[in-house]
Amino acid sequence: MSPTTSARGRRRVVALAYDGARLLDLTGPLETLATANDFGARYDVTIVSPDGAPVVTATGAGLVADCAVADLGGGLKRDHDVLIVPGGPNWPRVIHDRALIGAVRELSARSACVASICAGAFLLGAAGLLDGRRATTHWRFTTELAELFPRVTVDADALFVRDGDVVTSAGVSAGIDLTLALVEDHFGAEVARSTAKDMVVFMQRPGGQSQFSVRAQSTHARHESLRRILDTVVENPAAPHSLTSMARSAGVSVRHLNRLFREELDLTPARYVEQVRIEAAKSRLEVCDEPISTIARHAGFGSPESLRRAFSREFGVTPAAYRERFNTTNVHVS
User: Has UniProt tagged this entry with the keyword Transcription regulation (predicted)?
Assistant: First the structure.
């Protein structure tokens, strides 16, 4: 997808609907395009389903398609500017739906750009559209995407990833981020900026997906001594977990402990301790109003500045900014 900010022609968008699709995966991007039309964009949107029948989305709400894939007008290769493919909670099932995956292949062959929302990346993967490309999906499913489609390079932290004429996005709200990027490409930054402002969303959100995810603590280590050390660090992240003290507790040499961490976790002991401490701080930021200095002490950081540096490096935001964004909506309903 190459930038065409000077182009002002009408753009045709096709959105694929199917039973079990997440409603917001469709309505988020489509509302963004409709809002962009109020500020000078020119999008024509067609909602299609594999057979033209209405679909029942994951919420139970029905959605009426404009037509079937086979009845879609055009006929020339790449007669659509954008194809939008939503995801849904039943992606493990729908990726085996031959008719649906066939529809993805047919529509993608006629589209200048293919954009998936959230778990829609699995449909693109099943259609072979992600082979040899970088891609992303919701942080909960990045491991599964990489395992199911080993020819795909999965970026687990990106809000959306562009690779050639394929764009994949993370969770449902990241579909709005992706769509704003398309609007900017098609009609310029001012139209995209006005659209974002009207929708009260970021033009470009700070940080990546990792700020929303919970770090998976490696509870399946095979070596009993290593499991004991991992549990000890999680139970008391503020303790002085030096390499020497951890090796002594595990009853192994420092060299052997380093090897265990590398082989089973692909981490150094120091990096594991830091991740646990960051996770501990993040959890407290989400649920309490303690001073940052108190949280830093309880999480095992020597100072608020040490916490700030580690937190910013991990999540791209400061602890204070994270608390403001995720601790409360600051809305009080009486």
Answer: yes
